[in-house]
Amino acid sequence: MSREIIAILRGIQPDEAVAITDALIHAGITKIEVPLNSPNPFDSITRMIAHAGDRALIGAGTVLTVEAVDQLARLGAGMVVSPDANPDVISATKRHGMLSYPGVLTPTEAFAALRAGADGLKFFPAFKLGLDGFKALSAVLPQATRTYAVGGVGPADFVNWISAGITGFGLGSNIYQPGHTADEVAKAADQIVAAYDTATK
What we know:
Strands 5-4-3-2-1-9-8-7-6 form a nine-stranded parallel β-sheet. The chain contains eight helices and nine strands. The chain is α/β, with parallel strands linked by helices. The model has no long low-confidence stretch (mean pLDDT 97). Helix 1 (14-27) crosses helix 2 (41-52), helix 1 runs parallel beside helix 8 and helix 3 (66-75) packs parallel to helix 4 (87-95).
């Protein structure tokens, strides 16, 4: 089962990347993002792809430039996530055959991202948009649009957001915080997967 959960590993260190990747995959989370404002993020991503690129979709977050997209493509990353909807970044991502998930909050940003070729929309910060805001905005989006709630949304919120029509979630501090061990990540991931599976039944 491919769950629509993106694990956001902000602050991860390269020497812990493989063990934490294994913990996530074992729990059932196979979409993994290393934000580029983490320590040595390209090193972590390289190690994760070499170890588990055939078992997980591994990419980067906080991607702000075309140059970063090009570097990710050379590493074999499969996904580019951004906090904004830069059409140049989206277009470069798609030229390289990677999945593009830009951050949006307004209808203007959402449609600009889709026109540029985005595969899905990251609503960030989702807690500021809220369920009512998301419902209103999603009513005007193309029906097949993939949407992800990121920022201030956790397992306790899954049922309500899924009922509102969200596709999935990006989770950061709920899954990983700097200093957490692979065992701690595994425990958190198991709880998140259980909540997700219950909410999507």
